[in-house]
Write a structure and sequence with these properties.
With 175 residues, the chain is mainly β. Helix content is 10%, strand content 46%. The longest helix is centred in the last third of the chain and has 17 residues. The radius of gyration is 17 Å and the shape is globular.
């Protein structure tokens, strides 16, 4: 993945078409479902407080929409150095399993996937489902054009979970 931030707008995109991880789950004694974990491309506009994540599944495209104000981080008394940057640890107020390490000297409230809203750029993030760590930080020589995604039905996180459950149930019934 690559995170590009410019003038309070960012994109977070998969660099290749590969799937990040495969995970299987046994639905019953006969059926095993393979989940392809693909954390869709994300777009954030911090001025307009919009977060959009593109998701494709079941043959349809979706744009998961939420506010960039939703994440409330609480600092934890812990620091470490990542890529030469002093970082502070914080946990998500609403989910203690979600933690980030943000660079105190890079005042950009962004990070991978939905790990944003901390006082500095997130260089490491984890939850019970995912783990991210930055491989490099660089300043671009030219300002890229960051476009808001347009393709897909706009849904909430809860709507998408409901659609995924329906898809899983219909796949199970067809066997």
């Amino acid at each position: 993945y690559e995170l590009i931030y410019s003038n309070k707008v960012s994109t977070y995109n998969l660099l290749s078409d590969s799937i990040i991880k495969r995970k299987s789950k046994t639905v019953n004694k006969r059926t095993e479902v393979i989940f392809e974990i693909y954390l869709g491309n994300a777009y954030k506009d911090f001025k307009k407080r919009i977060y959009l994540r593109q998701e494709d599944f079941g043959g349809s495209k979706y744009l998961v929409k939420r506010s960039t104000d939703e994440n409330k981080w609480v600092d934890v008394d812990s620091t470490k150095t990542i890529l030469g940057y002093m970082c502070k640890k914080a946990r998500l107020e609403s989910d203690s399993t979600a933690t980030v390490w943000y660079a105190t000297t890079i005042p950009i409230p962004d990070g991978p996937y939905s790990f944003f809203g901390s006082p500095g750029l997130v260089l490491e993030a984890s939850s019970k489902r995912v783990y991210f760590v930055a491989e490099s930080v660089s300043q671009l020589t030219s300002i890229p054009n960051i476009e808001k995604p347009k393709a897909g039905k706009v849904v909430s996180e809860d709507d998408l979970r409901g659609l995924a459950l329906k898809f899983l149930v219909s796949t199970h019934k067809s066997e």
